[in-house]
Amino acid sequence: VQLQASGGGLVQAGGYLRLSCVASRSIFGLNVMGWYRQAPGEQRELVAQITSVGSENYADSARGRFTISRDNAKNTVYLRMNSLKPEDTAVYYCRIRVGQDDYWGQGTQVTVSS
Fold this sequence. Notes:
The protein is mainly β. Helix content is about 0%, strand content about 55%. The strands form 2 sheets. Strands 2, 4, 5, 6, 9, 10 and 11 form a 7-stranded mixed beta sheet that branches. A hairpin with a 6-residue loop joins strand 4 and strand 5 (about 45-50). The mean pLDDT is about 95.
């Protein structure tokens, strides 16, 4: 499975972005789609994830500002990011886990200016 992430960019603090990640084929069975981010000099961290049955999980830093969703018919996972802060600046990666299989996208840069 190949993942193509898009939607990153430069935005002012308080603004919003919506990230998209499209999988190259349909994902069957129980799976988890998620967004992670990695800031310079930092470890990659979970931002949000959603299971194939719609259960969502958020990092504390994202809860209340970000919303993850998925469209199974389009093999796509989204991340709506509101009230962006400079500390949200990072490369954002999408990930799909299906059983023991683990796939990562190439990342999309999000830069939030103060």
